[in-house]
Amino acid sequence: MRIGVLxxxxxxxxxxxxxxxxxxxxxxxxxxxxxxxxxxxxxxxxCDYRPLDLDAVSGxxxxxxxxxxxxxxQPAHLRGGxxxxxxxxxxxxxxxxxxxxxxxxxxxxxxxxxxxxxxxGVPKTIDNDIASTDVTFGFDTAVGVATEALDRLKTTAESxxxxxxxxxxxxxxxxxxLHSGMAAGxxxxxxxxxxxxxxxxxxxxxxxxxxxxxxxxxxxxxGAKPREGSMEFNVGKKDQYGHERFAGVANQLxxxxxxxLGKEARPxxxxxxxxxxxxxxxxxxxxxxxxxxxxxxxxxxxxxxxxALRGTDIVMxxxxxxxxxxxxxxxxxxxxxxxxx
Amino acid sequence: MRIGVLxxxxxxxxxxxxxxxxxxxxxxxxxxxxxxxxxxxxxxxxCDYRPLDLDAVSGxxxxxxxxxxxxxxQPAHLRGGxxxxxxxxxxxxxxxxxxxxxxxxxxxxxxxxxxxxxxxGVPKTIDNDIASTDVTFGFDTAVGVATEALDRLKTTAESxxxxxxxxxxxxxxxxxxLHSGMAAGxxxxxxxxxxxxxxxxxxxxxxxxxxxxxxxxxxxxxGAKPREGSMEFNVGKKDQYGHERFAGVANQLxxxxxxxLGKEARPxxxxxxxxxxxxxxxxxxxxxxxxxxxxxxxxxxxxxxxxALRGTDIVMxxxxxxxxxxxxxxxxxxxxxxxxx
Amino acid sequence: MRIGVLxxxxxxxxxxxxxxxxxxxxxxxxxxxxxxxxxxxxxxxxCDYRPLDLDAVSGxxxxxxxxxxxxxxQPAHLRGGxxxxxxxxxxxxxxxxxxxxxxxxxxxxxxxxxxxxxxxGVPKTIDNDIASTDVTFGFDTAVGVATEALDRLKTTAESxxxxxxxxxxxxxxxxxxLHSGMAAGxxxxxxxxxxxxxxxxxxxxxxxxxxxxxxxxxxxxxGAKPREGSMEFNVGKKDQYGHERFAGVANQLxxxxxxxLGKEARPxxxxxxxxxxxxxxxxxxxxxxxxxxxxxxxxxxxxxxxxALRGTDIVMxxxxxxxxxxxxxxxxxxxxxxxxx
Amino acid sequence: MRIGVLxxxxxxxxxxxxxxxxxxxxxxxxxxxxxxxxxxxxxxxxCDYRPLDLDAVSGxxxxxxxxxxxxxxQPAHLRGGxxxxxxxxxxxxxxxxxxxxxxxxxxxxxxxxxxxxxxxGVPKTIDNDIASTDVTFGFDTAVGVATEALDRLKTTAESxxxxxxxxxxxxxxxxxxLHSGMAAGxxxxxxxxxxxxxxxxxxxxxxxxxxxxxxxxxxxxxGAKPREGSMEFNVGKKDQYGHERFAGVANQLxxxxxxxLGKEARPxxxxxxxxxxxxxxxxxxxxxxxxxxxxxxxxxxxxxxxxALRGTDIVMxxxxxxxxxxxxxxxxxxxxxxxxx
Lengths: 341, 341, 341, 341
Fold this sequence. Notes:
Four copies of one chain form a homotetramer. By secondary structure, chain A is of the alpha/beta class. Helices cover 39% and strands 16% of the residues of chain A. Chain A is elongated. The mean pLDDT of chain A is 93. Chains C and D meet through α1, α5, α6 and α9 of C and α1, α5, α6 and α9 of D.
């Protein structure tokens, strides 16, 4: 068999582990040939690739980033993108393409699959918001990094007698906020799935101070928003330079809580540090298993499918299901977290 | 409600997180009273305990060990143990007992439950070998510690052009060996579930050297054994001081591989470092959820049950099932690992 | 002897290690009595303290923060502060006071010492900018945290083909920027000691892209400023809410470099995570030695002095010297760093 | 200039950082040519080398091991070794050779230097026992790894109510034992510089148990020995297989303390994990500075010298001084540590 692999979208710890695993399983166990496209779909559309043998993937298991590069190019966005891709797949004699990517990438994969290309997808997102799979690789690393930061911030908040509003990743879902907040013992967790009431939040944090505690940690997902009418909120409001970047939710919450509580409140934005660097053991194992099963699926002709974790098993699910809707934090999980706030 | 909690058996990262979660859920959300028995079942049998309120569990989430202490005392081993326990439960007016422990502890819990005591178990083992639950807390931390050690050992093995035989925990099952070996890119993984043939193992490692590589890492679970007749093997053979402790599998494998390969081979025994210290975020979240659900189960009268992870859900399963047999590494998981050796 | 100890100013990993060491050396080896004032100088001024015995400092060595609390209260700022302090020292029968703190604290210590109080200072700052000592505890931890973040950010910058401007602590000096930038292999390091020319900086980063590299990491100390006339710069300019906090140097540099380079540039502000949490082994050892020697100095009547590291020795230096001027990054150190940019 | 660099002896975190720094300083700032010999002195003796340009050292700063390989070959041990080396230096037109290594390597460097070869040495040892320099790179990483292990072992020792005897590296000196023991709050530290009296050690540990504590951690350097007549001690005694490896000091201490204290005692041997893997920020900075200054020394014709840290400065010291004697733990440092045991 001849297999093409590519990584697309934002950085995510574990990408290299998938690539390595695909190459090992395909080359060693099946005698396949593997090529890697550069910079995601761009490489496929421009026929920019290189062969991947065992040496090419030696030593990359624990490394962050992706040796193939990435981009946000999507075939559907380019006129004739699908046809170009189909042509290159034929020219290169590819029997399978394994795109590793997030929601956008999987939608593109689904589109190409519908158009008849032999696609086996591997889901990738630190946000953990892809339906059909219990967990995605990269999430555990992101939660680990956020938790370690929160562990450190706790002593500082305590020493300085402050409220710290810590913004973690999660534009549409609150998984990282939920898990890192639970793991670090945050005193409030704010997620996009439950628009917050600024009054209630103030009360929750205020209760801690009334009980004699001298600090509080609030974890907030970057995509969290106030309940309508709860407070003025400037989504993407521009700063003095015309950039949107300084008006995030943590900044606005810090200002609001400081005024309402009469306690010093400071925003901390963890940012990109959550999505780079060496993956945790958990993510390396999951990524390796995904790579293995993607090759198996290709060999069994199970195209139009996606690798997914269900319990302790890796199963194949239709790409169509995976992109149908986001996996959000269910009420029950939020309730579990609340008890220890 | 009045709830007694205890921790029993060996150290395991996440014990304190369970205790804290039990207290939070019970006290804050249900208005319960919680007491903690000292040193596992010993505390129950000798009525040695202390009240646990929110202050008592403040700041313990990320701490290793157990604030309640532990022991290997088992009620069934003591004459009249069950009756004594029953008497103290009555005297103390306990409505529920939540023992947190491994296989032995859960067997004792099952016994007491059969004898009519209101027990809700929480499984605990870094070995991950308890059936009925996908994962146990402590396992992720153990794998993380072992993987970090393996990451470090790799550069040393390479610089010194050696074979390193790294012994990880796992007396009966190879879960830690499998996961840390996969995560760190070991070149051979030896687990108790598959007695090894020393000839095959030598060949596998030898192939690396033939291919021009200058070092190899073999991960071996402490409970691994050779296939019968494959090599002389001294289970628990005594050393010159009359102690069994120096004749472990890594030591014997190092000697054997060195002779057969003609390459320097050294044993490294990771030991207790895998079972202590601060838990990973994964383990803190899982432990916290177990504690929450154990309290819920008690309030719903679901005694004789055990908290368990199934996929992303916490479910209650009969204690009888949990102790029926060990969860071993299935052949499929081992095959997945092999492709990247 | 009767010794009072206090911690003052911002959080700094190693504070608890000093407190523990003071208590151990004083109580165990000298049979002294030790009391700890709450919240820095406030505790002394308001006679708010507690006795510190061995149990009180058990288990705190590796913990961030300070068990005594801290504040920014300075005796000189309060009318009659010095007299009040003197009175309480007499009332409590204290033979020595050991304040642990940064520049402001040491100035206050110097003042009280001049006024005749028996003071032995211990320097504390993550910024490493106190003259008279080679290193201060907390600095190594801060550099370690920043370096780990930079290691992670590198793969993300590479995957996203971006310039990342990473702001680290250092209001007046660039020690953290210099060391973390060198340790992580940053491509430019910007420190307060050398106002930057935005043109030169653009050129330096631009050369990387011309050479075919796809990303760059710029480490910048929070106190860095452009050379006069080099670019518009808004020190502490207010944001739309009237707060100064969003107009830091990393934000402004990101905007400027993006425009000049035509490459996506993003600011990352590491913030408080650098000053909290468990200290590195290096900082624990240094802090422990400072505590030991502070007690020795007290017993030898060496008041008005400060513990300091010189090479591998702990020496005592006059408080007057320590507060005379900041220790800045010398040109030679900056030149060493440049070669690997 | 044409410079040859080589790494010799055991693995040590920071080797790659030195190599990278030598290449950057030499190539970028001086326009030199650099070659790297493979496997230490062997590469020089067999003229086995490769050119090192900026690409060759890209991405290696944070990596453990050495890209050049290492060996324990010493020129003086080979007949005609010095002459062979001299011949190759002439043939290759080398103006300077920078060997990076430990005691043995520096002795060889001294020998070659005496024979007229243009040598600038860089000291390397995790043991920190080279005189003339305050610290060697690799030491901080080793101490960090040992401290992290000790932090974890503490909770396990406590839960299991045991004495743990933790053996760390240090064949001739106790620096790692001293620093990791102080950093982790060990209850006894045993170093080669002070032969231990088993009776006194038993008493010291026993006092903890008498005081109601339930566990103890003893850190022991691998080269520690009992005071003569204090206990039977089998240096390098063979095990049942004729190997010396199982009769280390931790094992013998565990047996002895268990018998004398009547408490369970277990040995833990940290081993190679201390000398591999990614260096700490501290070690990366020190290694980078050493590389920079080695190139400067070569350009100033300062041959027969060694880079050394003195306070915060890098200075050059004669190779002769560096190899004259080991730097041992002075009594004063040991006394400082004792107060917190």
